[in-house]
Amino acid sequence: MIAVWGLTWKELIRKRVTLMTLIMTILFWIAYWFLAGAIAGGEVHVVTSLGLLENFTRSAMILTLGFFFGAFAVAFLAIFSSVAAITGEAETGVLQSVLARPIKRWKWFMGRWLGFVSYVAIYASLLYVSLHVICWIHTGVFFRLEALLPSLGLFLAVIPLLVSLTMVGSCYISPLGNGIWMTMLYGMGWLGSMIGRFMATGRLHINGMETLETLTGLIKLAMPADALQQRMLSELFSISELSGLYDLNSELSFFSVNGAASNSLLLYSAVYVAALLAAGLLIMRRKDF
Amino acid sequence: MSGFAIETNQLTKDYGDGRGCHGVTLTIREGEAFGFLGPNGAGKSTIVKMLTGLIKPTSGKAQIYGHASGTIEARRRLGYLPELFRYPDWLTGEEVLAFHAKLCELDKGAAKRRIQQLLDEVGIGSRGRDRLKGYSKGMQQRLGLACALLGDPDIVFLDEPASALDPVGRYEVRELLARLRGQGKTIFLNSHLLEDVEQLCDKVALLNNGQVLLEGKVCEVLRQQSIWRLRVNGYTPLAAERIHLMLGTAAAVSETEAGDGTVWIELELEDDEQIGLINYLLIELGMTIYEVGKTQSRLDEWFMQAVTGLEHRGERR
Questions:
Q1: DSSP assignment letter at A260
Q2: What pLDDT is attached to residue B170?
Q3: B91 and A98: CB-CB below 8 Å?
Q4: Is B63 in the same domain as B191?
Q5: Measuring CA to CA, which of A22, A160, A240, B21 is 20 to 30 A from A229?
Q6: Residues B294 and B205 in one domain
């Protein structure tokens, strides 16, 4: 399993996934640096005159924008690195030569899974830290460790979810089809969460709201990635602790942190990932190559 | 131990669309070289994949050295060269072998020595340090062969091992396989190159539409009469009579005009030594011999006779 894990890392490095990701991230950092500077130095309409809250609001805006990009970068890296994990390898005949070796099939699957998850997790952690450092340089606000750690955990939680879903898809669908399917599913999850956020702020008034609520709920169950992302921001900004004292969401406007995953949805997500992983292992064990 | 490297009993794979194979029963002894023949789409690769554990049989059983096919114990004994494969081009040849050595549970020192030895043996040598994207199809094939032999397996499954090789490469592979056979390894050769099968294998089986049509030892198959063709000048019908007298009534003679005044004589002989006598006779009768040769490989002939007139599902529309 360790050998397969190592091979996965080598693949991601040699195929220039790392290089391209780093180049794009550096470009983003440059843009983000100027954006953070502009928000930190600009005028922010805050309902209170307290400088601390003003700074907090500015940093919340900067980080929300940063994690808006970060969530997409991490999601696409997770999806597209693992998109060809099974059918892609089988199409080229690599899997046939490997699975005829005295290796249990589940070890191959787990080795690949661990490789993808650990690789994207390291990238996501670096991105997470870098976004905070840039924000801190511009606003001087540094979040408590009690808020940072759970929010980092939630930021990373999306990775096993997306990798598991993509790898299960790759047991049946060709790399191209799987990539399209996963991108659309992720996009649907994001859109569902967006609609949910609008509904929560009361800005959306249409007929059939109940149906829409059911639909967004179902989408959340199929793809809870954005709900996890919202919960990550909610933990970071301590939204529940500020409830009744300060309405950060009205300041964040379009990027308001509504629709965060409840504890039940967090538990569901964990079970969902475990079920997907188990399904992947079972499919791999039974599949003909 | 049964002394069998491979034993299958009514091995069946039903894909539900007519493809697959049905009731295949084979036995291959340890150290035997076995040639598996059949037209395209006959189901040869399906059987190889079942034996190597890549696909699961619908029914029936298969054993490799007494272990059920697909089990770790069975896979420890085998090496496999798939028909269609492409190793990741971002790895070097040495890295591909090093990765497979880990999967074969070889220790680091032994793996290093074995990798170098195999790279030299298959003719890749120092190019093993190059990335695979610079490899030709033939070099990939050589690497695949090295990969199959990496764990020093007792049985090697080779699915079209010489398909991408030039004549020199083909010769080298044939020599390598002959050496393996000399070492007592069991070889399961799935090939369309009947000349290679004829030279290497002890036993052959012919598969058509997923069923074993014929099976036998190569020496028995080759006991058939062989056909020789001679282009001569000055041919007269008297020559045919003299040939019949010399070889007996079993000799079949036919002749066709070559168009340049010469005549092609086709002879069906019981053994190759008779061609020397024919040469002598024709010269004695005052004829000039321009060409003498066997029409085709004898296994080719056997294969053609066996499958001619049969319907092959691989060609069905």
A1: P
A2: 82
A3: no
A4: yes
A5: A22
A6: no
